[in-house]
Write a structure and sequence with these properties.
Domain Putative DNA-binding: 8-93
Keywords: DNA-binding
Organism: Pseudomonas oryzicola
Shape: globular
Order of helices and strands: HHHHHHHHEHEEHHH
Helix content: 40-55%
Strand order of the largest sheet: 1-2-3
InterPro entries: DUF2063 (IPR018640)
Number of strands: 3
Mean pLDDT: 87
Protein name: DNA-binding domain-containing protein
Length: 251
């Protein structure tokens, strides 16, 4: 059952975001409340610009702030930690009419969001190569490689989203002859920040399978089904080197 304080807090939030709050009408008509509302609203817009720097580089500050203002009014934050704000911003951009001729904005925003998730994820031990020494081929095939909580990946079908995102993140010019085809991305959070890597379709399928709890034998089969020409040994070495997996639990 909601307390009187809880009801007041909910009404106050409704009033801040210009939703109906009859119980606070005497408060909301005051000039000081409008100043406070504008401060909160501007903080939301600032947070979206901070959380989606690649989008800002692609479309400019003015365009992004205008879009962020609309999104902030429609979808205010549900958490006081504004670094988490923007979970639905990629969906918003994909449905945003002024962005209709920029179909890559939504997917690029998803990569910005994955970067944030990798950055704020809690620290977790990683699988060290020496720990695999002595394991037989059958042992390895039956083991489960679980991605760490600070690892994010995604496959973007039909668009070179990773190349667009990486060039803007690294302040590099986008190649004029950029092939317009699907790409994957891998992001790994570390104490020093986040590293990013290109990832093929088979690599994304492999990590999807690992995250779903499949053993190495099954996960590798799914990866090869998604990309028959995949060099699986090269992929596994790359993922291990990037610090993607948790230590294996030996029972």
């Amino acid at each position: 059952m909601k307390t009187a304080l809880g009801a007041f807090q909910d009404a106050f939030v409704d009033a801040l975001y210009q939703r109906a709050a009859p119980a606070l009408q005497s408060v909301t008509v005051q000039a000081a409340f409008e100043v406070y509302r504008n401060t909160v609203f501007n903080s939301c817009v600032d947070a979206l610009c901070d959380n989606f720097p690649t989008i800002e580089r692609l479309v400019g500050t003015a365009w992004l702030r205008a879009a962020a203002a609309i999104h902030a009014r429609e979808t205010p934050p549900s958490d006081a930690r504004l670094i988490l704000y923007g979970e639905g911003f990629a969906d918003f951009l994909e449905a945003f009419e002024p962005a209709r001729e920029l179909p890559y904005l939504g997917p690029v925003a998803r990569l910005d969001r994955l970067w944030t998730e990798a950055f704020i994820a809690p620290a977790q031990a990683l699988l060290e190569l020496p720990s695999l020494a002595g394991m037989t081929t059958s042992d390895l095939a039956a083991c489960h490689l679980a991605p760490r909580t600070c690892v994010r990946w995604s496959w973007f079908s039909g668009q070179p989203i990773y190349s667009i995102w990486r060039c803007n993140r690294e302040a590099l010019p986008i190649p004029e002859e950029l092939p317009w085809r699907g790409e994957g991305a891998l992001l790994v959070g570390h104490a020093e920040g986040v590293t990013w890597h290109a990832l093929e379709a088979g690599g994304c399928a492999f990590l999807d399978a690992c995250a779903a709890g499949n053993d190495l034998d099954r996960a590798s089969a799914l990866a090869l089904a998604a990309q028959p020409d995949l060099d699986f040994h090269d992929l596994l070495g790359h993922l291990l080197g990037a610090g993607v997996f948790r230590p294996i639990n030996v029972t």
